[in-house]
Amino acid sequence: MLSAIQKQHVRDLAAVKAECEVEKEEATKAAESLANAYGEALLSQSNEVNEVQNTLVKEVKQLEASAAQFVRQTTAWAKITGDLGKSLKELGDFQNWARTIEKDLRTMCGTVDDLIREEIASKQ
């Protein structure tokens, strides 16, 4: 009887071990499946992040080029407005010079006219 109980116990123990081994294999497969699913999700998200990063890098380069072009344009506009201001100042200086010359010439003409009148009057 004891021997029968021992044999039954050994059979039951073997059955439990076999069942544990099956459950262990199922758990391992489930863990691998879960790890693969998370790995694929992370890989997909990583690829998406890389694509966004590449897009951002391209946009930053375009923005840098646009900013450089804007700097060149504003520098050119500043030079043009500076040159225009200088030209307007020179034009104003020329107008003042022309007025001064005109005034001096009128004064000289008036003086010459007066001298001519005095000469004519003295000859009469």
UniProtKB/TrEMBL annotation:
Domain of life: Eukaryota
Protein name as annotated: Biogenesis of lysosome-related organelles complex 1 subunit 1
InterPro entries on file: BLOC1S1
Listed GO CC annotations: BLOC-1 complex
Biological process (GO), any one: endosomal transport
Family: Belongs to the BLOC1S1 family.
